[in-house]
Design goal:
Layout: E1 2-7, H1 11-22, E2 26-31, H2 34-43, E3 48-51, H3 60-70, E4 75-79, H4 84-92, E5 97-100, H5 105-118, E6 130-133, E7 138-141, E8 144-145, H6 150-161, E9 166-168, H7 169-175, H8 185-199, E10 209-212, E11 216-219
Parallel strand pairs: 1-2, 1-3, 3-4, 4-5
Antiparallel strand pairs: 6-7, 7-8, 9-11, 10-11
Helix pairs in contact: 6-8
């Protein structure tokens, strides 16, 4: 039996889908909030996440991003939001499929099976070299916890949560709470240099954190 987790805050939809999926060989642990979903992912092993976008606490796109930073588990978006930007962002954040509501439960089952057919577990491919655990506020490099200052942790977390995106120094300054408001862009350069010393084989030729001339930094994962 397939074991999935679903984050959906509509109790009627939850009841319908949990019952229907169970009758078709898919056991579902359903929760209504992002925090509950992240807790379950820490405690249990799942083959798939079914994720709504309009949720309490945080937007489903942000939750998708947080899940992808922790694990390569397949993510199937199930949402009434039909804006093409939501679809594009969800896929950029690591979702594997996007199924707009309303739909027939049989289509959801077909999408689940299709996603799982395409998925190769981490054991069959290279493991992510940098793994963020926001609950424990730790980052592992090749499975080993990094020793980071608070500022280093926050800057590196932002880069991991925005892979392949260029983050400006101003963005990093504004979103890393451990860095004082009076700090300058040079502070970010110093922190990036310290992080590179801890994660790069050759800090002068970085593999992970790339400088983007005149713009900022980009994480290549």
């Amino acid at each position: 039996m397939i074991h999935a987790m679903m984050v959906e805050d509509d109790p009627d939809i939850t009841t319908l889908l949990v019952h229907y999926l169970k009758n078709n060989g898919i056991a579902v642990d359903a929760v209504a909030t992002p925090s509950a979903g992240l807790d379950l992912l820490e405690k249990n092993s799942y083959q798939l996440v079914i994720l709504d976008l309009t949720l309490p606490q945080m937007d489903g796109l942000e939750l998708c991003q947080k899940i992808r930073a922790r694990t390569d588990i397949p993510i199937l978006i199930s949402s009434a939001r039909s804006d093409i930007n939501d679809k594009v962002i969800a896929l950029e954040y690591g979702a594997d499929d996007y199924l707009p509501k309303p739909y027939e439960p049989d289509e959801l089952i077909a999408r689940i099976k299709s996603v799982l057919r395409r998925y190769r577990p981490a054991a069959q491919k290279s493991a992510k070299p940098l793994l963020l655990n926001e609950a424990e506020q730790t980052i592992r490099h090749n499975g080993i916890p990094l020793s980071l200052t608070r500022a280093e942790y926050e800057v590196l977390s932002l880069l991991i949560l925005h892979p392949q995106q260029t983050l400006s120094r101003d963005f990093l300054l504004q979103n890393a709470k451990a860095i004082g408001w009076e700090s300058s862009a040079r502070t970010i350069d110093v922190i990036i240099s310290r992080i590179r010393q801890k994660i790069e084989t050759d800090p002068k030729t970085p593999r992970y954190i790339h400088s983007v001339r005149g713009s900022g930094y980009k994480m290549a994962l």
